[in-house]
Design brief:
- The protein is an alpha/beta fold.
- Helices cover 36% and strands 18% of the residues.
- The strands form 4 sheets. The chain has a 7-stranded mixed sheet with strand order 2-5-9-10-11-12-13. It has a 3-stranded mixed sheet with strand order 1-7-6.
- It binds iron/sulfur cluster.
- Iron/sulfur cluster binds next to loops.
Length: 323
């Protein structure tokens, strides 16, 4: 089992992407609700993690070194490195398109929640001025659709009013992603995200406003954030901040993302490059490691009485009459 190694305190080595100016491109949204395909883990059956997803932007300013979504930029002739972080596409008119898509459903069963933020962070900084996510939430509220949100940004608190209303009528769950309590490491790994303690404070605030919220401790990074004490401390902090669940997952490195993460390691932790290269010949860390980590997290959750996710969603047939 890997042991956690404390990073020495020092200024982060400059990331080449940080020197690039931000370019915001406005594109007209054509479709907003994406039907999700089953997701296959190494040596396991395909699982359907959600039925529908919505990504209000393309690219993510947060620039997490390990981000699996970087590969989505390569579909548009851009790279998954600096382009993913600095060339951001705003889906203008997304709320109007979504309204039409929801009207077409009018009466139907939501078999699973609509997940916002599977390939971008819906509350990355550009949301502050473009408010595409807020417009989408308004439509989902009117349609009484079940909603889940994944974010690292405390800006989600801005929409606590809408999320609380969604929660009053249907399933609603906000996953706040936190990988470490070490603010210095977080700043290097996830350069444009709020510090971990502010994210924890956001969990507390959402819950106080009636929004079901929990912590997503993912991805857990071998040799960097997987120390037993560190995981326990983060879980305890989540519990103390009223997190209603604690989900977790180990780092996956898709071949398109691996070079970006290895370049980050070469800058920040060159001593770990060979270990990661050896472990991540495929997308997943070795099975024995994942199983041990899974069991460790289960023990931690049990000790704190925290479930591994929000209450199960019960499929509902919704009639939309408010258009
Ligand atoms: S916040 Fe999420 S989508 Fe954005 S870079 Fe980080 S991991 Fe990727």
């Amino acid at each position: 089992m890997a042991t956690n190694t404390q990073l020495p305190a020092r200024e982060p080595v400059p990331d080449p992407a940080a020197a690039r100016p931000l370019a915001v491109h406005v594109i007209q949204a054509k479709a907003v609700l994406n039907r999700m395909r089953p997701f296959r883990q190494q040596n396991s059956a395909a699982v359907q993690i959600a039925e529908w997803s919505i990504n209000p932007y393309r690219g993510c300013q947060h620039g997490c070194a390990y981000c699996y979504a970087r590969r989505t930029h390569t579909d548009f002739d851009m790279n998954g490195a600096a382009d993913f972080e600095r060339e951001i596409f705003v889906k203008a008119g997304a709320a109007e398109i979504l309204r039409q898509e929801l009207r077409a459903r009018r009466r139907g069963t939501w078999h699973a929640p609509v997940v916002i933020g599977t390939a971008v962070d819906p509350y990355q900084p550009v949301e502050g001025s473009w408010r595409v996510t807020r417009g989408i939430l308004e439509e989902l509220r009117i349609a009484r659709a079940p909603v889940q949100i994944i974010t690292k940004n405390t800006m989600v608190m801005r929409d606590a009013d809408l999320l609380a209303e969604i929660a009053r009528h249907n399933h609603c769950a906000v996953f706040i992603s936190i990988t470490t309590l070490d603010a210095d490491l977080a700043r290097r790994l996830e350069p444009a995200t709020p510090p971990p303690l502010k994210r924890l404070a956001a969990v507390r605030t959402l819950v106080a406003h009636g929004v079901p919220a929990g912590v997503m401790l993912a991805p857990i990074l071998p040799w960097l954030t997987d120390g037993r004490g560190e995981l326990e401390a983060l879980a305890l902090a989540a519990h103390r901040h009223q997190a209603q669940w604690l989900s977790s997952g180990t780092l996956r490195l898709h071949p398109d993302v691996r070079p970006v993460f290895l370049a980050w390691l070469a800058r920040e932790r060159p001593d770990l490059v060979d270990r990661y290269t050896d472990w991540y010949r495929w997308t997943e860390a070795p099975a024995y490691y994942r199983e041990r980590l899974h069991s460790r997290m289960a023990t931690i959750r049990t000790a704190l009485g925290l479930p591994d996710g929000p209450p199960a969603y019960e499929p509902q047939t919704v009639q939309m009459t408010l258009f």
